[in-house]
Design a protein that fits this description.
The protein has helices spanning 2-20, 26-38, 42-60, 66-85, 92-115, 122-132, 137-154, 161-181, 191-197. By secondary structure, it is an all-alpha fold.
Amino acid sequence: MQLLVGLWLFGASVALLVRAELGLDPWDVLHQGISGKSGISLGLVVIATSVFVLVLWVPLRQRPGIGTLANVLLVGVSLDATLAVLPAPTELPWQIAFLVAGILGSAVATGLYIGAGLGPGPRDGLMTGLAARGISIRIARTAIEVAVLALGWLLGGTVGLGTVAYALAIGPLAHIFIPLFTIPARLGEKPVEAARRHR
């Protein structure tokens, strides 16, 4: 249940960022750019990109979990469903509110689905797979995200204040919410204690 709630919330949070029109995180800049050029819905682009990234796991010998497969399907569905009912704000204060809610929601969602311990998302697994092959995760993450951001921007994805705000805030916020929502491995152990023990 925690996994499903986290994945659905993640898709809804991306929809908030899209409607804010102040800038997206690097992967969603790419998704939006592809969607704009192809005419395919943003959620379907997210699903297709996730499948493509999973194919890249094969030479890295990464194994998906049930959470990975659920991530591939559910985030895109949630994103499209939320965009279908969520109006676009026309005033800056509301745009900023959507942006803040989207970033905070993404961080909580990340804590929920990673804390469930049922497998990383496709993009997370790509970075950890490269790290397992001797590439610094910092270098791998930076290189991948700079590349997808640049490509997405060239395709017409939205880059702006929200992109910078997301980049600065998501790490510290995830650092709070991942331990908070990590499911204890031992009976009676608090989530924060379990997360610290596995660091």
